[in-house]
Predict the structure.
Amino acid sequence: MAAPSSEALRLLQVCLWLTLIVGIGLVRADCGCNAANRHGQGTEKHRHGAAFKYSQEANEKVSGPGETKDRDKMILLPAGIFTMGTDKPDIPQDGESPARRVQLDSFYMDMYEVSNLEFDKFVTVTKHVTEAEKFGDSFVFEGLLSEEVKSGIDKAVAAAPWWLPVKGADWRHPEGPDSNISDRLDHPVLHVSWNDASAYCAWVGKRLPTEAEWEYACRGGLENRLFPWGNKLQPKGEHFANVWQGVFPTNNSGEDGYVQTSPVTMFPANGYGLYNMVGNAWEWTSDWWDTSHTADDAYNPNGPPSGTDRVKKGGSYMCHKSYCYRYRCAARSQNTPDSSSSNLGFRCAASV
Ligand SMILES: *[C@@H]1O[C@H](CO)[C@@H](O)[C@H](O)[C@H]1NC(C)=O
Ligand SMILES: *[C@@H]1O[C@H](CO)[C@@H](O)[C@H](O)[C@H]1NC(C)=O
Ligand SMILES: [Ca+2]
Ligand SMILES: [Ca+2]
């Protein structure tokens, strides 16, 4: 391993370089949260075809055990009005502002991120093949890879060199072929695309939450707070979420107990009884991505009518304030609907 000082210098250089690029508006990227997108692997036709197919299914057709409308491990959130977004954006280019009043009907939200065990049941019954498996690879954070896997890879993501496309990485093999999930069945499923997540939710008779529903759920009944529990990251020194402690991307001290994902039931629930709304795994929402929003009041908004990327919320175990301060309820990021990575999962919602 290189000396910490040269690592720090490298990171600083990368970040300065990216800041410059962002500043002149060439890319929307930042220090790497949304960089793990598929580019040039699927054709446009493939991508949009898949998105269209599954969004139709997710929105219109409910099949499988979902027809029982099992609301086990879901919370019925009350109808209400909340402030979505913020007028004090920490990452303005993500479209965190403006703050706007949003009214929502009552809906159900999963208490937990969908776990490997739950996803396994879905795959066992439906024989669903995830997009990572179809493409034959998925993005994995370099710090998690064995030397053997790393040595076989030559192309990193230019804007975020810690993301590597790993052949054979998928939800059953989160760090590539030499890894497995046997001791992580209660952790969030990873390497699932938006299309995979939508298919799962439809199968259990649910759907992905809209971004507005997700953010309302994240806020747990509190108004204008950074985190689901308040404004302080670690009240009384306690960890309320699985994020990164130490120096990104070289040293994750794991002070919160986890350098990777944690069980979906870990860390305190928010005011609505929901777990890991921020941290652990990023979560897909049903909205298309756009960074300009009207400040007008809205009622059950479901995002732009079309787009190329889908919104993800909540940040992950890889997030640190120094490079990806996105473990806040107003924070947001995006990926193409066929993208998958080692820090991106989901939970489902349901209408009443
Ligand atoms: C799963 O990985 C663990 C190490 O993380 C290893 O000890 C175990 O043998 C593996 N199990 C299978 C079935 O490959
Ligand atoms: C990582 O960080 C911890 C705590 O900040 C420190 O004790 C440790 O020496 C660091 N390790 C490396 C390899 O820099
Ligand atoms: Ca952690
Ligand atoms: Ca999460």
The helical segments are 4-23, 44-60, 116-126, 131-135, 147-151, 194-203, 211-219. The pocket of calcium ion (ligand 3) is lined by residues 242-244, 254, 256, 258-259, 317 (CB under 6 Å).
